[in-house]
Amino acid sequence: xxxxxxxxxxxxxxxxxxxTVTCSQNMNHEYMSWYRQDPGLGLRQIYYSMNVEVTDKGDxxxxxxxxxxxxxxxxxxxxxxxxxxxxxxxxASSKIPGQGPExxxxxxxxxxxx
Amino acid sequence: xxxxxxxxxxVSVSEGTPVLLRCxxxxxxxxxxxxxxxxxxxxxxxxxxxxxxxxxxxxxxxFEAEFKKSETSFHLTKPSAHMSDAAEYFCVVxxxxxxxxxxxxxxxxxxxxxxx
Lengths: 114, 116
Hints:
- Chain A contains no helices and 11 strands.
- By secondary structure, chain A is mostly beta strands.
- Chain A is globular, with a radius of gyration of 13 Å.
């Protein structure tokens, strides 16, 4: 079954404690991205990757890092989380976004930073 | 630059009556347009997409949307609402160009409330 898998689904952490949210897709997609969803703001792109070893900033990259060492995996790293990073996070993958092929989304990770 | 405006943050309809969720967009190129649905505590599911073929697009669960270039709109409709349609709906635009980093631009969302 084609899918994007994020882990964990829920996470509560304390300010400053490094964390990683994993994302894996089994569709051999080149393009992967991370979004955060906040009430009234829709989804905003944090980082994206066009292919292995190619990553770039989206609209809200501050406080986040990513890596793309393998095509299937695209982890999101918060080196020093702060309360304003409390949000719902989605990982997505697609062939070439916006040209017919849809983006496939993970189930989301609800992060709370206290 | 691309942008999306969903004109209503909340829409409330009675079960069995028509649904209209409004979306206007701005794009420098010929855009691709999508509607996604998010049920409470669930992920995002694609309802339908427009990619420069037929202007009236049919999606899942009886939803459809019409691309109107002259009005820069892509409104989502359904003839008869069902309780299971209660969810948040997102209109999304992408011009599919490398200039925009192939980015999907999301509207703020419209919460659809269905009254029994």
